[in-house]
Specification:
The complex is a heterodimer of chains A (261) and B (282). With 261 residues, chain A is of the alpha/beta class. Chain A is 32% helix and 23% strand. Chain A has a single domain (2-81, 150-258), classed as P-loop containing nucleotide triphosphate hydrolases (Rossmann fold, 3-Layer(aba) Sandwich), CATH 3.40.50. In chain A, the strands form 2 sheets. Chain A has a 6-stranded mixed sheet with strand order 6-7-8-3-9-10, with helices on both faces. In chain A, helix 3 packs across helix 4 and helix 6 (188-194) crosses helix 7. Chain B has 282 residues and is mostly helical. Chain B has one domain (61-281): MetI-like fold. In chain B, 80% of the residues lie in helices and 0% in strands. Chain B is built from 12 helices and no strands. The two termini of chain B are 31 Å apart. The chains are: A alpha/beta (261), B mainly alpha (282).
Chain lengths: 261, 282
């Protein structure tokens, strides 16, 4: 269980990025965080990752308070951030240096096969396409088997076709060990196709506006009317979150269930 | 049809073209670079040979070559080369060691940078030759002062290169190290060192170039052997062929040592995706 208790962040330059953000995220749950720019999505993710410390409140994984990067929390960034001087295989094995070499090789080979890049083991990162590089980044983050995997707009730099492909692939990988996924995104489609719950945030300062539960079975059909409905709901919520005159919606209402069907 | 045409064209081309054109390219590039110096040398040789000039002040290539052979036969050449190479090696080693350590300290540690860097930058502004009288007073006229001068010349580019490279390491890559919870030493070994290496190699090569430059300055001040001594000796006794011979040997030694650094570090830099590499492959 990942609990965020009144997490707030004010940067040294006085920017109030995040205010009293609270949420409980169950093991294996997929949560998408969506919102306009400046709503503190990335700040929140970096606080969970332990890369930046929250100014107020606490981030807790089970009983441990997170103040620094944690062994059970992995992250995938917007860019693949592969180390250019390591081969693809060595990049994937980067977080496994404590393991004996043969175990590591075995795990890396499995991960490579799992992301469909077995033939690229010896390639340099510069030789990969954008989608392949992000697959390697996903493999690198998953191979130490994190309990929580954070994704910071992981597919936003990719073309629409590759993005869909990788979204499906991510779900497929998630199914192996079912880690908690927390995904920051700009893309409503992506949020609805992946998440059990979409958290809509409103900007300046960033805070939670509405939580929308997506009650759709997987695999989800992107063209079904129900899917369209959830998308419209998230979009409407996003629009309202940008209107200064609307009070924060109650994040506890499970809005998806209150719809017309 | 219009789609297939280029394909068939390409197919017809590829089997025949690569071996010959690749071989041609491989040898054409160095050959192209040799064209100008060899052409000039041949021209001058012919010019003097035909009697348009006596070649006294600008000796023709055969005369320079004869001078080199003469020096080599008497064993003097190897004595001078050994003296110069030893000085460069010692000065380069000291300069690199000091530049690397201080550069790394001020790159990695902000307080050290604020403490150290202004002084180093101020010292850098002094023309290094200006140290010569002081070094001679402090360290005497023999080897120590010469090596010290070379080391000073090598130190600054290495120091600047290392510090700049550490400061320029991408924060995003460092974050990858943090996420995998690398300890301080592991972060240096697995992230910072490889990230800094390309710039370090460039700094070493610049430093070596300055080392060769400063060895001449060092040997101008009262050396009894070394290539710099050959230059001075040639000037004082009016032997232009000896001067040019020493210059040519400097060029060969400088290029060879630079190439050795390049060769030694190439396996470590294979991963680089740089403009130079692309044009090198083309």
């Amino acid at each position: 269980m990942l609990s965020l208790e009144k997490v707030g962040k004010t940067y040294p330059n006085g920017v109030h990025a995040l205010e009293r953000f609270s949420a409980e995220i169950k093991p294996g749950e997929i949560v998408a965080i969506i919102g306009g720019s400046g709503c503190g999505k990335s700040t929140l993710l970096r606080a969970i990752a332990g890369l930046d410390r929250a100014s107020t409140g606490t981030v807790r994984l089970d009983s441990a308070v997170i103040t620094a990067p944690h062994a059970k929390v992995g992250i995938i960034f917007q860019e693949p951030r592969l180390l250019p001087w390591l081969s693809v295989a060595d990049n994937i094995g980067f977080g496994l240096s404590d393991l004996p070499a043969d175990v590591r090789r075995e795990k890396v080979a499995q991960a490579l096969a799992r992301v469909g890049l077995a033939d690229k083991a010896k390639a340099w990162p510069r030789e990969l396409s954008g989608g392949q590089a992000q697959r390697v980044a996903i493999a690198r983050a998953l191979v130490p088997q994190p309990e929580v995997l954070l994704l910071d707009e992981p597919f936003s730099a990719l073309d629409a076709f590759t993005r869909r492909d990788l979204q499906d692939h991510l779900l497929d990988l998630w199914n192996d060990t079912r880690p908690t996924l927390i995904l920051v995104t700009h893309d409503v489609d992506e949020a609805v196709v992946l998440a059990d719950r979409v958290l809509v945030m409103r900007p300046r300062p960033g805070r939670l506006f509405e939580a929308i539960r997506i009650n759709l079975t997987r695999p989800r059909d992107r063209s079904s009317p129900l899917f369209e409905n959830f998308k419209r709901h998230v979009l409407t919520s996003l629009d309202r979150s940008l209107d200064r005159n609307v009070p924060d919606a109650d994040p506890k209402t499970v809005a998806g269930e209150a719809m017309w069907w | 049809m219009s789609v297939e045409l280029p394909v068939t064209l390409e197919r017809a081309d590829t089997p025949a073209a690569p071996p010959s054109s690749a071989r041609l390219r491989r040898y054409a590039r160095p050959a192209l670079g040799l064209l100008l110096p060899v052409g000039l040398a041949l021209f001058w040789e012919a010019w003097v040979g035909l009697g348009y000039s006596n070649g006294r002040l600008v000796p023709p290539p055969t005369k320079i070559f004869a001078t080199v052979m003469e020096l080599a036969k008497s064993g003097e050449l190897s004595r001078h080369i050994t003296a110069t190479v030893t000085r460069v090696a010692a000065g380069f080693g000291l300069g690199v060691a000091a530049g690397t350590i201080l550069g790394a300290v001020s790159g990695y540690w902000g307080l050290a940078r604020q403490l150290l860097d202004p002084t180093v930058q101020a010292l850098r502004a002094i023309p290094s030759i200006a140290w010569v009288p002081l070094f001679i007073l402090w360290l005497g006229i023999f080897e120590t002062s010469k090596i010290a001068l070379i080391a000073v010349g090598v130190f600054f580019p290495v120091y600047l290169g290392v510090m700049g490279a550490i400061l320029a390491v991408d924060r995003k890559i460092v974050e990858v190290g943090r996420i995998f919870r690398l300890s301080g030493p592991a972060m240096i070994r697995r992230i910072l060192l490889p990230a800094v290496l390309p710039a370090y190699v460039v700094a070493l090569r610049v430093g070596l170039g300055l080392g060769w430059m400063f060895v001449v300055a060092a040997e101008f001040m009262g050396a009894s052997e070394g290539l710099g001594y050959l230059l001075i000796d040639g000037q004082q006794l009016g032997k232009p062929a000896q001067i040019v011979a020493a210059i040519v040997i400097f060029a060969i030694l400088g290029k060879t040592t630079d190439w050795l650094i390049e060769l030694a570090t190439a396996p470590l830099l294979r991963w680089q995706d740089a403009f130079g590499r692309q044009s090198g492959a083309a």
